[in-house]
Fold these 3 entries.
Entry 1:
Amino acid sequence: MRIIVTRVQPQAQHWVAQLQELGFDALALPLIEVRAVADTSLLKAAWQELRKFAAVMFVSRAAVDFFFKENSAQALIKQGRDAINTRFWSTGPGTEQALLRHGVTPAQLDSPPEQAGQFDSEALWAQVQSQIQPGDRVLIVRGDSEGDEPQAGTMRPGVGRDWLADRLTQAGAQVQFVVAYRRGPPVWGADEQAVARSGATDGALWLLSSSEAVAHLKDLLPGQNWGLARALATHPRIAEAARQQGFGQVAVTRPALVDVVASIKSNA
């Protein structure tokens, strides 16, 4: 049974390597690509105000990488020491590791515990809600879908993090958003289309980690019947997106490698 890993690169290839080391037939077929924003002025402005935020939440590893790409990791280390009260929030271990790689110290980090049922905004909120006081400023660093890039000088929310923003607002916090990267569909050639069409009918297991990425299948492979396709989704919301896409069999797993491997074996 082939495992089709649909994460963004280079994460997809990293997952493929881990699965292959464990003896699985895995290949990368990303359903989403990320790119830098054309105008980085908002990122630089957010950086300059970093010390004024009670917390900065990063929605993904890409959010971390693109945010710090425009700034200096050494500057963060110095600024972090000067502003130790600023917390850095992540929803999962991949984002947490990216923050550590860019100079954030473990003492400044908040993430869902390893044993959490899911790595998402709800699990993060359970960890951090006691930190927030009325009047605190919280910055959410996120991505934007292509065509939705904000005009310079604006910060606005986007699909996928409204729930956390609502909880913060209800707690009296002032929430700001800054877009660090743009998401869009990949460009597929004949080889990628052939792999996808085969995987829709030959019993391959699609490892799905993004609802938005699943939606790209409609344009990447128009007219494809997914009734025979099998999917393993890393969140219930992603599983629902797969069902709406037409996947005939959909299972849900926690996104940690050990849980994904166990689910693959149970679905073999």
Note: The chain has two domains: 2-32+187-266, 35-184.
Entry 2:
Amino acid sequence: MTETPWWDAARHADRRPLLLARGRIRRRIEGWLDDQGFTLVDPAALAISPGNEAHLHGFSTEAIGNDGLARRMYLHTSPEFAMKKLLAAGETRIAAFAHVWRNRERGPLHSPEFTMLEWYRTGEPYDVLIGDCMAFLRLAAEEAGAAEEAGAAALRFRAATCDPFAEPERLSVADAFMRHAGIDLLATVGTDGGTDRDGLAAQLAASGIRHAPDDTWSDLMSRVLVERVEPHLGHGRATVLDRYPAPEAALARRAADDPRVAERFELYACGVELANGFGELTNPAEQRRRFTAEMDEKQRVHGERYPVDEDFLAALAHMPPASGIALGFDRLVMLATGAPRIDDVMWTPVP
């Protein structure tokens, strides 16, 4: 049976309250950012590189110059490179509501085009970003009035609920793997960033988690995260999944107290990942090494690689210490309004 199109008048009438709530939530967040001294910026979407992470897939196009010659360009998967160039230029607190594009992503929680709220603070620890996230969750819940249980607004997705006013749970990735899968993840990570793929595979087998012979260490970690860990996160209260293994944090600083982990966290509510935050790496030589490793892996798995934005690496040498984060704005609206699908909170969903 053919689904009713989003532009059908009756269906639009059903969706319209969610879309109006989206606008109210955005205005509340923009007001909060303004009160905190942030400058809202508008990064260009066309880029030299869409991002240099192995499992991110960009949309490519051609830019025709005045000379008639074509140059390969990409729609960005995040405004990160452009915004870090602004930090190098002297901006100190910036934020953007940016349309971003990611190929090979479609489902109830994924759209090929979506809105990312990304913001940066120079000279501040990445822990501060957790407080920012919680402020946005609370503003969204208040504005949308997603649930009236016990007289308080809540976030919800399917049968799961989350109280954004409760103190979030802060849990390291290593502790989460041990608690929910019985796996000692850091035993398979070296201080030099190397990994023990076979050691991790043996632990998965002992825990009854199926995997493929050609799975890499990163594949194995992702399998445990998706199957055993994420379903338990953000229920009742938000979860901050903190201190990712360094091999899974290509753009983050190593932790000062343990080089096996990095200053990276993800925020979960109702089992849904909402945000990804970092203590930002500012060493261009180390960043180049990580990009090269990521693109080598992309070439091995997907048969392609993206160029490195040399202008970004040049700017990185001038970027001050900073913390930055990206939050899926559409997902936040989904959870605040109780919408079952990301398309329900987009004015014009991607065909």
Note: The longest helix spans residues 9-35.
Entry 3:
Amino acid sequence: MPRPHVLALVLAGGAGSRMGVLTDTRSKPSLPVAGELPLIDFPLSNCRLSGISDVWLIAQHNPHSLLDHVANGRPWDLDRTRGGFRMLHPFSGEDGERWHEGNAHAIHAHREFIADLRPDVTVVLSADHVYTLDLRDVVDAHLDREASVTIVTTEVAVDEASRHGVVEVDGSSVVGFSYKPDDPATGTVSAEVFVYDTAVLLDTLAELADKHGEDELGDFGERLLPHLVDGGRAHAHRLEGYWRDLGTVESYWQGNQDLLGDEPRLRLDRRDWPIMGRRADLPAARVLRGAEVSDSMLSAGAVVRGSVERSVLGPGVVIERGARVVDSVLMEEVVVEGGARVERSVLAARTRVGEGAVVGAPGDGELTRVGDGGTVEAGAEVPAGAEVAGAV
């Protein structure tokens, strides 16, 4: 039996407002994990390794930060003559502008292109999450059950579930769906991976648009998924293993912390399922005499002369002699000068922390953030929870 024609839509258009200054000049899917793996690498790698060759990226907020990295799909072998990788943006036409007002609206805005491709199944993935998943298993289960939608689910603490779509499951059937409820009844939530019967998806969006208006389609959880669940052909597929939504500063920091220690919660060294993407052309990291590094991850080109503990350093980061970095995430080309201290902070690309400055504080308080190209002057103190804007 031939494999179904599958289209994957990767949603990378959110503004990332909960990330504050970290997404002022870049999209959230461009934020790096493990030093040099942008979040977008995870859904694209999952698609490619699952044998999906038609992958479209729907972008909106700061898309320029993705363009060079995705390189027309080349790092994932998706740059094909027919089909393959495609990047979709908001556009204007005879019926006006189509600025995306939520992910369901974004797909409806591009309905003609999807219909022209005529995929049997459409897989929709968010670009804000870290996990590995063979999508072939989900597609096969979806087809076997003749589902209208299959929702990939995972488990979180009940007190965290209100950030997500909460799914009520009976066997494999989805019998209830609540979008970001104030009082979630369960910790079973959507992992933001959905498999749709394409005809049902497009027809349902058209029906809802006619009834409520296109601009009211919003996100999947607002109208589309409750409608399909009520129709009785919605099923769940449990995702086993690690999954984390990196959509807030705290969860982004924690996702990087999950990489550290003797027994990290997240491992990215699977030979059978590598996270593919475009990497910096830099030599190996260097730890120089007198430096101290423990429970940390150093990317290519990093140079450490000072002290680094429980931290993740991006490509080209420099930690000068006498500087100390603890419980922090430093993106590419950050420089921490001598005598400076950075604790429990996230520093975006090309930040410079001046000599003797103090950024953040130990403990379990709020994280301190510095935007792309930001500068902390020598001797300055940036308290826990503060934000420093990046360069204009």
Note: The mean pLDDT is 91.
